[in-house]
Structure formats: structure tokens, C-alpha cells
Amino acid sequence: MTTLDIDFVRARFPALSEPSLAGQAFFENAGGSYTCGAVIDRLFRFYHQRKVQPYAAYAASHAAGAEMDEARSRLAALMGVDEDELSFGPSTSANTFVLAQAVRGWLKGRAGAVVVTDQDHEANSGVWRRLAEDGIEIREWKIDPDTGHLDPAGLVPLLADGQVRLVCFPHCSNVVGEINPVAEICATVRAAGAFSCVDGVSYAPHGLPDMGALGADVYLFSAYKTYGPHQGLMLIRRAFAGMLPAQGHFFNADVLFKRLTPAGPDHAQVAACAGMADYIDEVHVHHAAAAVGGGGAGEAHPRLAAAGIAGPVDRNRAVHRLMREHEIRLLRPLLDQLAGRRGIRLLGPRQAELRAPTLAIALDRPAAPVAAALAAQGIMAGAGDFYAVRPLAAMGVDPAQGVLRLSFVHYTSEAEVAQLMLALDAVL
């Protein structure tokens, strides 16, 4: 496949051509990405044509249920899990909370420990730490206080006595930015007889997970940060889910995607999540057709078979590579600029290949006024602790002062990064 066609991609996001946003470059994507047009179209259609209780016999209800099922089946296929191993919930924080209550019931009164890190967003930290209230042992896997690095070697002694049942860690911290070696860590956890729970919220916007390659037992991320509506997605392997007590209605306990979902999902938003799969497929088809000399889109193009990328997992992998290559290319000059500036501390690695394009910068003053000054330069950025109080404190950064966070995804253009760099020169 070719390099990312940025014009094609940007045309799929209505916000990028919205007149009220003209001249403003969006660099707080880690807080929530723009929504792709395919999702918006599906949400609009659902509310206009199908906003009824789904799964009944009448036509509107049947169509509503079918579109909800389509979202689950197509996204599950892209990520390499069975359809019922994908659960939708109101948010990743809510999904993690419910999962923690299930683990509480599973481990209460039994020998067993849970490993957490101090690199995580609080959603994948606090709920696990509170299991100590029921006598469940919590062990902390600590980051390097200078770099924020989560060393896989540091996990090994925590697993040595065979008592650990679950290891919870992030694919990527929302302030450190370093991409953790998930497959390596999950293999270590599995060899120790434990299960793995990966918070993918900060990484999934840069490429949806390939669960077969990662080997995680649970992977959680947010649709509203991956170009979709405000839903949380939980991928949970059948073997692990079956060991946990059900948290939903008793009559749904034998349905895996309802087992850990105590409340009914938002029907319209679940249906709209199929637009995320539309987008991944659309990007793939466009680039695969270009790579084999085709013109136009559509999977029926006669030369697409020659690309050798037909299955959903392969489509997801190919689009993931396109996204990451584009992000790395844009990230390098920004990292070089920050490396040459005194009086700031960039958290995490300085090599673009090792991190997501989520840059948290500790300053010698509160971050909020700096973000406000950037806004006057047409840069939409964030400031604060971003619910990452523990990693900031572990690295000696005052959470009350906060950090300036600059984050982008694959639809960000070179021109926007150039605009950001000029604004940083003016403001810092």
C-alpha cells in the first residue's frame, strides 16, 4: 500500500471543512477525536428512521437491531475476535468499573493478587486498587520516575510467586506516550498463569488492536477517540469472561456480550459504530486500489485481489500501518523542535517510532494559561492532569500545575503541524 492520502482522509471528516473551525488546528485529539462522516450519517439515519426499540418484528425495529448487530460483527472481525467477545458500554471508565466488580466477585475470599501500574489513566488504576477493600492483594508495577518508562523486566518479580491472577496495564499512557510492548507483556503474563487487561484508550486512535497479535485477554478503548460516538468498547476473551460472575440481568448471563453489561447500551450509538468499520474499509479500499493501479473505490474493483489484502484483520493491519507511518513522519520535526527548547520537559521518549503522537510537556509555570495563549494562535490544545495524577506525581510533576498536552492523529496535516510549531515559538 502507498503512503497515506491525506486529502482523501481529511475529506472523510466533516469537522475539517467546517467554516466555524477554519484556521484552527486540532491538537487535543487524545481527549476525543473528530467524528468521521460515515458515523455521523449512520447516527442521523438511526434517529430519523429507526429510533424504536430494536429486535422486534416490524420493519423499523428489525432495521435498528440489524444495524446494531452489524456494528458488533464488523468491528469484531476487524480486530480478530468473535462477535460476542465485543461488548459496548457507556464509556471505557464504566466498562472497566463493571469488569473490576466482576473480578472482585471472582477473587473475593480466594488467594490471588492483581498487578496495576502507576503509568495508567485513573480509569485503569483506581477501580483495581479499590479491590484491596475486600482483601485482594494489589501489587504496583512502577515506572521510571525520570522517563516514565514501564520496564517489562519490572513485572517479572511481581509474578514470581504464582499468586497474581490479573495484570492491568496501558498500551500507551495518555501523558507518557510511550508504546508499551503489549504482546511481550501479555506473553509474560500468560506464562505466569495470569490474565491481562490492557487499557487501549490512548493507543487505539492510532490503529485499532489486532487481538491475535497482541494476545490480550481484555482490551478496552473508546469509540469517541477512534472517530466514533461516545461509547466504550471492551474486547474480552471467552475463556476469561466465563470465569467471572455475571454483572448483568440473570437471564442474560449466558450471552457473552451482555454478561458484563448491566445496562442496555445506547442503541443509536452502537449502530453508528458500524461507521467506524465503514471508515477503516474505505481507507483500505482507496489505498489498495491505488497500490495496484486501480481507479475508484469499492471492493469489487477487479485488481483489488492482486493486493493480497482481503480479510478484515488484514485490512485493519494495513490501515494501521498507514496511520502510524503518517503520524511518525509528522511527529519527528515537532520532537526535534521541543528537544532544542530549554525550560520545558517532554514526558516520554524523544524517538517518534517509540511513542504515540501525544506529547505532554511540563513547564516552569501552570499549563492552562499556555494552552489559552495557543488558542489565540489557532491551536486547540489541552492543559491539566488528564486523570493521570499518578504518573505525573510519580515523575515529579505537580498535577495541580498540570502539563500542556499536544496530541494528533492520522488526519492531521503537515500544514497543521507547521502552524503548531510556529505557535509554540511565539508562546513559549
Automatic annotation (TrEMBL):
Domain Aminotransferase class V intervals: 26-238, 323-420
Please report a single Pfam family linked to this protein.
Aminotran_5
InterPro entries reported for this sequence? Aminotrans_V_dom, PyrdxlP-dep_Trfase, PyrdxlP-dep_Trfase_major, PyrdxlP-dep_Trfase_small
Enumerate the UniProt keywords alphabetically: Lyase, Pyridoxal phosphate
Is Lyase one of the keywords? yes
Molecular-function GO term, any one: lyase activity
Tell me yes or no: is Zinc among this UniProt entry's keywords.
no
Coiled coil located at which positions?
none
Gene3D superfamilies recorded for this chain?
A: Aspartate Aminotransferase, domain 1 (3.90.1150.10), Type I PLP-dependent aspartate aminotransferase-like (Major domain) (3.40.640.10)
- What this protein is called in its record is Selenocysteine lyase/cysteine desulfurase
